[in-house]
Fold each of these.
Amino acid sequence: MNYLIKRVLQLIPTFLVATLIAFILFSLVGDPFEGLRQDPRLASQVERLRRIYGYDKDPITRYFLWIKNFLQGEWGYSIMAKRAVFQVVMERLPVSLSIGIVNTVLATLFGILLGIYSAIHLYSAADYAATALVFFGMSMPSFFFGVMALFFFVVTIPLFNVGLMTPGFHPDIANLFDKTIEYGRHLALPIFILTLLGMGGFVRYSRSAMLEVLHMDYIRTARAKGLPESVVIRKHALRNALIPIVTLLALSLPAIIGAAPITETIFSINGLGKLYIDALGANDIMVLMADLTLTISLVIIGNLLADILYAVVDPRVTLE
Amino acid sequence: MNDVLLEVHDLVKWFPIKRGVFGRVQGHVKAVDGVSFSLRQGETLGLVGESGSGKTTIGRLVLKLIPHTRGRIVFEGVDITSMNYSQFRPMKKDMQIIFQDPYSSLNPRMTVGEIIAEPLLVHTNMTQKEREKRVYELLEKVTLRPEHARRYPHEFSGGQRQRIGIARALALNPKFIVADEPISALDVSIQAQITNLLIDLQRDMNISFLFIAHDLSVVKHMADSVLVLYLGKPMEYGKNEDVFVHPRHPYTQALLSAVPVPDPDYKRERIILQGEIPSPIDPPKGCVFHTRCPYATDKCKTEIPQLREVATGHFVACHYA
Amino acid sequence: MEKDNILEIKNLHVTFYTEDGIVRALQGVEYEVKHNETLGVVGESGCGKSVTSLTIMRLLPKPQAKVEEGQILFRDKETGQEINLLELPEEKMRHVRGNRISMIFQEPMTALNPVYTVGDQIMEAILIHNPETTRQEARKKAIEMLKLVGIPAAEKRVDDYPHQMSGGMRQRVMIAMALSTNPDILIADEPTTALDVTIQAQILDLINRLQEQLGMSIILITHNLGVVAQNADRIAVMYLGRIVEYAPVREIFHDPKHPYTQGLLQSVPRLDRGGLKEPLPGISGNLPSPYNPPPGCKFHPRCPYVMDRCREEEPSAVEISPGHTVRCWLHVKGEKSNE
């Protein structure tokens, strides 16, 4: 327990350093209010904003000003949306989360299952097929694959829908059931593509983890005991193969808020990924920082989670 | 002849045990704790012991591959313990090592010729031609063929790889070689060949060996004198005959009786030690061997026995020897 | 099958089809194991000593390994029936494996599953072969077995994970697990090779004691001649997939007939004899590659007595005295040369 508290406390400097680096890098890009200044009516406002965000001071002081506000829920003002950043992000978060969670769960689940199946049936037709699928998924760029999917399944055969993933989604449909179906028609394609592209790593990883375990001496011991092969695999091999996989699982936590700016852009989904791309174009530093800070937090939490899970699944590892 | 080449006085090596997030030192593993010995030119000293005995650490220490904690190492009358790297560097060519695992100790991306020539490149200013000639000489010495120089380590069997390792160690005509379990990873018939090779080389080149082994039969065959270690401490030290014919320490006696002898009718008193080898992190108080010693008394539990000379040149660390 | 045999291996041929080539791992291996005796199987790497035992257990790696020919006859003590293990359906084989024939391995450090307690792993063996046993009974039996193999505080250690034990302790756990089903045969594949000398002595002593106490046959596989000399009744010496000599232990050590056996015995320095730095006669040359074995007698490139015939024709096993067979042209009477 003591160890856990220590570990959590250690996260704080990591978080601060990571956000500081991000902040300074964005500061190098230049003055975010440059665009607003073009409009003479806003001149006095711009000066006020510059003072609020500390643009009359050095970047480090500005960072501390920002982090203090950020932690209090004051995420700043989006130049692009002309609204509070917090509002903008919270609006987009549910969209990204619904894609991100579903796609991460599907990618990890199918990835791990397929990888383990491949390892058990090494060099079988299924194994080769899985390998082919993985290479397809890992080498296919999402902008190409996405556009092709768009062309075939939305334009040619209107099976799915795109766009309009904005607040107040389809106000014309009142029935909750119909609304869910419509929601699905919008999200199915990007989720499918992200799953296919994302599971490759899990297939490779769990396949090699399982293969390694299957060559262990204790698997031979388990067989020599007279256990049926199914028990050898399920009880002795799987449990050990899952140890490294669990770590990978925890580390993929950031993916749930949508690390898919390209796919979101292609399918015109107004999620955090697309927001990030748009903010980059508009040099909207407050939005960029908010988005990055969320990701940084999830990376850090994922790492902590990985360590904890590791100790839970492997009796050789203790948290001390 | 028979001058002392290497002298080790009261050598100590403690490894810190680090715990916690900030790696605070919580204690020490006394891997080597007060070991002294001397080795003459052209002779072999056998270091014998089980896991945790510190025998491998001693081999690393005398070559200054790892820093020592206390004690003195004198090579050819020169104290090398206080030397810094640049002072010690010229002496390194006289002191070489052969490893247990012939598979991992050779760089797989270098040809055998390059591997053997490497020390020549570092320590001498031989020309390319001279180095080549020397490599062929060395290959012949370890009964490999000149054409082997162009091949890579993976093309060789375990025994041949050990020969390559030996050729590399011999490249600079060393006076002293640490042989760390040089045959224990090899097949039985190959072990005999390498043993013979080492003995021949010693005779021809007057090399001194620090021979580290857990197999007592081999040490009896190879070593002029023997040092028996247990948990980093010397238990018994003497000439081959002292240790193998007249062992005085209960641990030596037990070790000898545990060695399987390839004769179904060989009769001897079997001493089967009870219990496990204690962890060197938390060694027993008093005599470190008392927890497994069949003759242990209360005195052994509290008082550390000093290494005493029980006969000329025969030392034993036991209250009752 | 002879009456006092529990296991007979007949003309066993096993081939490995690997990416690097074909290895004829076993070529006509034959041996028998008698009730309550210990058979020592000795040889260097690649001789097939472990492959033979994995074949008995039907644990050869699939799909590379293939049994081409031969029989492994096993006498079921309960029914007195002879069964050919190679023809047994997998379902039935599972009742033999780990139950009638158990096995322990060289690496006690890795042979136990790190994520389960040693108690769980012993209980698993008991429960799978005794379906009517309850978990409590199995746990009691596991503790009893741990006591039997000399683990102190067995009631507590039963809940230990393997990493909390030393190598010697883990090998004891392996033995406890293997013997928890009262097997007729224990196959011990290099059981002490990875252990310290004093621990090796303990484990060998334990195996001998348990054999007397429980009554079982042991196949002791090792490269260490000393280990078999004092623990085996009969010895099979293997070289490159063949048994080159097979005899009672005293004949192997006092009157070895095959040049390989002789060389092997002369390769090891002895505690009981031999002078300091005396050359060991040993065996010259290297072990041939199993992918590319020499023609004729497999030992001929290293044999000091090699004859022309050895280079061309492989000798078959000849019984030179009761229970003592040799595969060597030196021991084949001229006119009786077979085939």
Note: The radius of gyration of chain A is 24 Å.
Amino acid sequence: MRFKLYIAVVSALLLLALGVPALAAATDPKTFVFVTFGDVDSLDPAYAYDTASGEVIHQLYDNLVAYEGGSLDKIIPMLATQVPSKANGLISQDGLTVKFPIRKGVKFHNGDVLTPADVEYTFERAMLADPAGGPVWMFFEPLLGVQTLREVIAKAGGPGVDAKDFDAKKLDAKVVQKVYDIIDKTVEVEGDYVVFHLAKPYPAFLQILAKGGSWSSIVNKKWMVENGAWDGKATTWPKWYDQAKEEMTLYQKAMGTGPFRLLTWDRNAGQIILKRFDDYWRGPAKLETVFIKYVEEANTRMLMLQTGEADAAVIQQQYLDQIRNVKGIVVKEHLPYIGNTALLFNYTIPVQGNEDIVGSGKLDGNGVPPDFFADIHVRKAFNYAFDYETYIKEVAMGAGSKPYGPAPAVLPFVNKNRPWYSFDLKKAEEEFKQAFGGELWKKGFKLTILYNTGNEQRKTAAEILEANIESINPKFKIDVQGMQWSTYLSKLRASALPVFFMGWHMDFPDAHNFYMPYMHSAGAFAGYTGQGMVDLAKAKFDALIEQAISTYDNAKRQELYYKLQDLAYEYAVAVFYIEPEEHRVYRDWVKGVVYNPAYSANYDFYTIYKEVR
Amino acid sequence: MLTYIARRLLLLPVVLFGVSIFIFGVMSFLSPYELVSTYIKSPEELKNQSLDALVEKYGLNDPWHLRYIRWLGNVLHGNLGYSESANMYVLDAIKQRFPASLELALFAVVPVVFGGIWLGVVSAVHHNRLLDHATRIFAIIGWSLPSFVAGILALMFFYGYLGWFPPGRLSAWAHEIIASGGFRQYTGMNTIDAILNWNWPIFWDAVRHLVAPTITLAWLWWAFILRITRSSMLDVLNKDYVTTARAKGLPERLVINRHAKRNAMIPVTTVAGLMVLGLLGGMAITETVFDYKGIGLLTVQGAQQLDYTLVLGTALFYGVLLVIGNLVVDVLYAIIDPRVRLE
Amino acid sequence: MVTKKLLRNPISMLGLIILLGFVILAVFAPWIAPTPERYKDEPYRIPRYGYRATPTPPSSEHPFGLTQGQHDIFYGIVWGTRTAFRVGILVAGISCLIGVVVGSISAYVGGRVDEFLMRVVDIFMSFPFIIAAIVVTSVFGKSLTNVMVALIFFSWMNYARLIRGNILQVKQEEYVMAARASGVSHFKIILRHLLPNSIFPVLIQASMSLGSVVLTVAGLSFLGLGAEPGYADWGQMLSFARNWLMGTPGNPLAYWYVVAYPAAAIVLFVLAWNLIGDAFRDILDPRIQA
């Protein structure tokens, strides 16, 4: 028995010995631990298009220009020494040439000095690589008026955009050269300047280039070529066209001019470790080491923040009650976010093979006809039937506001005297009574609203609609069903979903970035909203959207976007139901946090320091 | 016995073929646009209409038997492919993640076996008395707990409340030392590597991260060991030599420790081997709770994202592990207990 | 005799009493927790009383409180009992059936067929079950049914082995030999003579696995594979409770009800089966016949 006592005592002591250091360990003022979830997709600025990757790239690289502090409208120089404008002559009078004087003496992490050639290389390499699903369309649109390199190749006499089994390596040498020539002409070095040649005036061009947009991070040409990236020659680029992401040079390496350098992307432990770059041109950062850790469980992240192991953490809105008012934890709420969520309609719902969603496919009370949402009264009725206030107050826990239309209210050119539809069952009933010449009210319908499983907020949004619409008329039946994300995606692709939820988060803070996906016939969602919507957009919206992005005249832009906002309302193009708000959660010893909604990063670690008592 | 081992090993390729065909077969129900979801994680990422470009890029349009042949060809050349969800080559992912899980399993076996044996002996010695019922119910409650509930409660208590045993595998400072090259990773098992590097701070740090999951696993598995110990103890306690020892007037403690316990241990030791396999198989949940980046967590995340390259790779790996592991257990059992003959 | 022993053993008595409670809950669910009119055709959908994303504490209308998204916990627990029994019985029953069919064919026919079937069993046993379950549910969609299918697919092998061993013993008995010699059909022999004399241990094993099936399903729910939130399933409820453990500042037990009720339900249910099972094994273990 005595022996057992020994074991008990020894193990108790051991537990204490193991545990106590954790209690004693104070937080290190030079090290910052940020816990979030998800994982980086790629560290290559030409490929990365998700916020987790943008978060890291933001710390490693600099852009030509930047936003001042938390502002969206004030753009300041960064790697360029001046911000181009018509006033200083760096933007030509026709708006087609934009010149950037490049800063001298800026060092990359390996000691190389930044040159205008690096800037030229950055953009040309990105455009010639054009990874599928990547962000490079943002260069093509202003510079060449196209969306992909495939379009350029087609223009240069190569295979058409829809040609199957395309292989850039098999392109004709002449086409290869010609494509290069086209791309080469868009960005050129002139002495200490880099000059961009635009296809048409593009007022949001500076926003695309500004810090916060990871795609415009300036890379080191010499280092890139040494490390196996495109060598800058006219004839060789097909080798690097649309590579597998893991084969891209910057996939897991980084060589920027940013305040931090990459120590490791430790995919094994699920973390990124950044070290301070002491030769940073704006002076070294205050933090020495930054950890970005990926922890999937929200509960674990909260605990890490509570114990102080983490300095900052991403915690979803609904869990904030658990840490708000906890001593030592700061919760900054109601921060602006440039994005919104909407329920979109499919104007031409396919029936064949889609019976599980549309039922009979007829206007007979057992399904919905293909043109169900082509009837404007149905769209309006849905807009009236959504309880915006309840959703924002209860589901979003008050973190958000009702949109005015496609573009979020934080952006310029939003007419705030023109509110969006509000919850009104009476009006919804009136609209339903007018739909299909009164037939719909008599016959009723049965509709399935699908959401991607795991997204509880969307499920609830659908159930709110379900409850409200079913209360209007007993013949109206709505069925809410969850669907695997993969299946949901393929249904979207086949434009088989009658209604679907979509969120849009800005690429760059400009109204254009919202009218394009929601209302243009070539926008991101046009493929899912059916031919009916495409026809409508072509007839009514496209020309206005294109005009609005082709002029620097702000008064003119405002007029056009106000008009588009009215049209969005008039045609009830979607149920825009929330513009969410952001929040940040960190320990009270964290100082110098700058929030800018245009950053894809949660934190800009350059300005942050820790004040440990 | 050698022929038996050879025959079992011959089964291995068949198992691996079956496993891969099964997964490919199931995956063949997916359309290219479902498979492409691996590369697009949420509707927010549907920026431009590049689904077709992605489908083309990753060859998802090909019929599944073509993809299978392509995959098989690569595997035969030792290339398990690149995992989109893990962001690394599948082989590297297994090489780096498996030691983590193994380390946890090996650590957990110790308290499970010793605690379980102790509980089993207590329960057998007090057969059908209150203490017997109490220990059994205690252990069975553990056996009846959803492992994630036990895990989360342990995490809340040991980390949230006491602040002792953090989640993850190492603290930030230890990771920094490893990333800066001041620490060589020989095995991927942090505790062993720390000893090999003679780095005691990291050793203690690694142990500290192992305690909470180990305690959780122990409670979950005690009932298993308790049952085996108890029944073999009861068996032995009825044997003639124990009765004789008792009759000789030996104190009860000596009877149990010297005579009964030793003989009752044989089945328990073989079961411990089986348990390591069981622990490894069911580790995904524990790893999720404690954010312990092992192979279970990796596989679950991969499978949820339909990352079939990763799923296939880890499934093959588990297949090998299970076939060989089961074989080892069987052989060990035959060696220890001569009554067992391998057919 | 066995029943008597079970009733005399305090451990199994405890199990039986708990189990009886659950049976009553399941049978009388429509009276204990009536389905509101609006949800009449979907009784397994837990009614919502609002949309708020944080849980609401117990009140007189909702004695167990409301989950995140305001689903009634009491309703979920009561109807979840039916789900638990359904999942347990279907998975244990069907996999037992498959096992019995495969095992008896294997044992009765013998030779090459036996060899082949046993190798198939080996292959299935070498299959990483969790991976397979996740693959099946990720491909065919996240739902309780698919989880059950995956479970059945990978749990019939033990029954097959068990019944095979038993039949191989019985097969040598004289009356079976006699029946064979007199030309009784194979099917009849298996059904009339072999199975009745060998199936008992298998049935016990199957019924004892009911609890662990429910536990496995809950685990898969935790990994994000089971029922959707709002479905009357304990595992689902518990898996969504995981993020409410911290409580609010100064009140660490602020959300206890979100966790405690479903956890208690699941633990008691599984415990009941395990207690009975443990006692059962004692009774059947020839080595403990003191």
Note: Chain A has a mean pLDDT of 90.
Amino acid sequence: MSVDTKTVARIAHLARLKVPEDRLEPLAGELNQLLAWVEQLSEVNTDNVPPLTSVVHARLPRRDDVVTDGDRQADVLANAPDAQNGFFAVPKVIE
Amino acid sequence: MSKLISGTTGEWEVVIGLEVHAQVTSNSKLFSGAATEFGAEPNTQVSLVDAAMPGMLPVINAYCVEQAVRTGLALDAQINLYSIFDRKNYFYADLPQGYQISQYKQPVVGEGIITLDLKDGETKEVGIERLHLEQDAGKSMHDQHPTMTYVDLNRSGVALMEIVSKPDMRSSEEAGAYLKKLRTILRYIGTCDGNMEQGSMRADVNVSVRKPGGPLGTRCEIKNVNSVRFVQQAIEYEARRQIDVIEDGGKIVQETRLYDVAAGVTRSMRSKEEAHDYRYFPDPDLLPLELDPAWVDKIKAGLPELPDEKKNRLMRDFGLSVYDAGVMVSEPEIGVYFEEVAKGRDPKQASNWVTGSLFAALNAKGVSITESPVTAANLGKLIDLIADNTISGRIAKDVFEIMVETGGDPAKIVEEKGLKQITDTGFIEGIVDKIIAENPGQVAQYDGGANPKVIGWFVGQVMKQSQGKANPAQVNELLKKKLG
């Protein structure tokens, strides 16, 4: 598996990363090296082995259905570049 | 029952699948301890987990899982004892995490079935493809400021069940019946309040058209439709649009569309190609969700009577028609009310009062059955008063009107207003004799029964004289005897 500069540009766009044109080629090289390293895993026969989702041998911790949080509008909005009337205010996202 | 649509090249069949987002009824959110209640001040029901502050970790609400499993069981679906939470990645102003925690390849509930109630007692089975748990996003408001969008995260992180049907529906009526039935089931088991106006139930509608029996056509998805009526209208419009495009030599492009309620049309959202590249991957913050089979069995044992079971029982035990039984189970509260009225009484009478006078009164007052001024116990008493001849059916209508206004006890109303039926034969006989004596013309017309319709006029006169209180059966009997 390998990626070309077009794929790199697309991944960058999906992640909202600004990658200058002249960085695409070097990045593709780096990513391909990483992929080649991971590719070593295909040397292992994984037929009939279910995909591993977690390496932690624990049960998913559960919470009771009670209200224990909230009522902290000021904290929630503290880092917002702009907040008005208790709302986050962002540049209009609809045409 | 499939309803075909005609075009210039012949008949077309519409194929419909629905994805319903149903808000799980719970006190707190799927992965945080913030409240879920509707209508709070903006951003007051938000924990730092819901706001996606760095370092915050999700902890699953066990009750939300229970609700999803309960729903799966009510849909006769497979419960997956091992399921995975994935991240669905996309950027939007009301999604602070930059991804939605959802379930992709291994949902908590697999295939199930739902039985639709169609016209004339017909039924149809529609397959359920899957049900998974996911987080809701926040709410964006675009109309509060000329250049800004306002974002409220109160809904962010609220648990949703996405319930996906198989593409088994063939008309807008069937889609409507599916939504209504699903809503009824969810309300019976208390896993979602089904309130479409408040957004607790929203539907994405997949529509395609094909020649009957032919291969499936390309589908379009109409997003976020929030009422049964709009879903049906959107389907009608979209099916016609697709047929017109194809018959004009065009091709259907797979895309996401919006239903414009005001204009009654669907419009392309003109989404960019990569918008659908969600790059799902297992959420590293959450371990797989493993369920104990004994726990699932316990939920199953605790399921209440479901609408289909209840409908069959009402038909069997109370002799209700398919239609009446369907009405009685359409809302859990109506069924409870009806059963209290019908218990130990004539079920047909009970059903007539509930679907007739009571529904009319509730409609006129604009209240639901739980807010009915006439309690089930009082309506039952009213029926008893008719059954034991204390009042006639006609007087009962008047008593009922008073009950609607005052919420009073029917026996007391009858007592206070002096509406008790007169069954004293001697008293009725006196009136009958008087009417006969005063109206020789009508007696001649009746002619000893040769003109039987005239008896109605006599009954009317006697009732009028007795202010409606004479027992109609006795009046009829006496008149027939006397007029010979």
Note: Chain A has three helices and three strands.
Amino acid sequence: MITAGVDMGAKTIKVVILKNGKVIAKSIILGGFDQRAAAEKAFADTLTQSKLSRNDIEHITVTGMGKKEIYMHPPISADKELTEVTAAAKGAHFLFPSVRTVIDVGAEEGRAIRVDAAGKVIDFAVNEKCAAGAGSFTEAMGRALEVPVEQLGDLSLQSQQAVAMNAQCAVFAESEVVSLIHAKTPKSDIARAVHDAIASRIISMARRIGIEKDIALIGGLTKNKGFVKSLQQGLESNLLLPDDPEFVAAIGSALIAAE
Amino acid sequence: MLANYGYKDGSGDFFITIDTDKCNGCGKCVAICPARVLGLITDESDPFRDIPVVAVTEEHRRKIKYSCAPCKPTVGRKTLPCIYACQPNAIKHSW
Amino acid sequence: MAKEFWRWKEYNWKSPDKDWKQAKIITAGVDVGSVSSKTAIMADGELYAYSLMRTGSDSPQSARKTIDWAMDGTGLTLDNIHYVVGTGYGRVNIPFSKKAITEIACHARGANYIWGQSVKTVLDMGGQDCKAIKCDDKGKVTAFLMNDKCAAGTGRGMEVFADLLSVPIEEMGNLSLSLDKEPEPVSSTCVVFAKSEALGLLRQGWSKEKVLAAYCSAMAHRVFTLLEKIGVEKDFVITGGISKNTGVVKRLETELKLTALPKPPQYDPQLAGAIGAALFAKALVEKEKR
């Protein structure tokens, strides 16, 4: 059976095509201000990769903040919608059957999900509508530090010393970062403070659902090594890290489309 | 006086309200709070008050959503320790 | 960093007809805020002199400068002042003050002096925070709420939009009111998310004015929900920097179905905190005497 999963995230759109439980094509693209057009482009890209046409795909499931954009809307016409929580849990459990807690940090939301041995969602908690608890926080801090956000993780691994950050709000934290730079604080230490701050907020949220091992980290921020380190230190536990952390919810969606 | 400590951000309202007229400054809530969110202070908003009053500490005011999270599990939530400890019933949480 | 669109004048004033040498109690209130520092000097509970200036990087020094400037040309020295109360963000760092009192208590007390005892609700929208205060007819606080965690609804949040749209901050309000039809408010409260939302709207062809209107109404709604929490009672006044942003104020008044009292001609509402502190200082002198 061939199915597709689409994850219409706040910042990027991810599409995967699954054939008999194997990913045969995947594409990620910036959503921009026309999410539907972006989704169509990413979808067309996966069709080209897999040498398939729309008619070869039996079911398409969509998840993510912008899921309404393509649900029942041609040419993609997804035939099922899924919550972000269910999609993330399904995908993470598929990749790591031993997982019991899934931490998912995307551009605009952070989530912690508890799953049972079958990958079914038992409970979850979400940080939403505030940039302090999501990937946007690191982007804003990268701008203040004048460091590309992709380099922020490696930079923070060079930190020699922990510094405290008091501001919670991303807007106020930007000013704090600027003051720290003026005070000649090494940028690596500031980058670490940024990751420690967001990790501690994610951990507090996750504690509300009770953290059980194994713990997997998925979502865009997984690619940030500095954040991963801060999170592992805060949790005092290793994390399972997928190879393609952004695609986990899309994979989960494609799996559910096949059921 | 109803002293509201905390904040409102995009994700919701997170306020701890202290009724300073009811608070007798006994400090039981301070002792019981596992996250050390509460502290006894000289009331800087009421210069004529003679006894100490409880307040959310400066350190926690901007993050009580996170500081108080361990006492607020998504399932099986019990009476909060601070509220349980307060005999004059001076403490309220908004979430 | 961002270009500074926030401009205002520094100035001082002294009473042309009062003589401090005739007064029994001379007190001062020094309000060191994150953006501006203010001093009010009162002779027997009447405003005698004041100053308003920018806060420097060093708060003790800013406090000293503002009180010196308020005393300038009066013949007063610190020794003539019986009691100094410090307030504001830098209140604990004022070496010559005898007591620190929160800006919440001082604002309420000052508003009571400036507008009269009918004032029951004070909204202070500052550069980095937003405070809602309820008080009785003596200016004593009965409830308060402060939001300094989140930039939404603060001057800083407005600056982000002033920069984004390259509009001087003092023109934001009027520009936002220049439309015939009110657009839907931006859906995000968070300034970071509202900014991405605004960028999307601009790309869709929205005018700056329309985006500003959508943002100002979202901010007004946010401040409204804060006020709702403590309950608004007449009379209602607005102080702080954003009180000058008509775009937020007008929309807030519409939502509250209540008009804020106009600014009294003789006082700058920015002095409310310093005046309140000086009045507390007088009450503390009287308490010590008893």
Note: Helices of chain C lie at 59-71, 103-115, 155-165, 172-176, 191-203, 208-230, 246-256, 272-289.
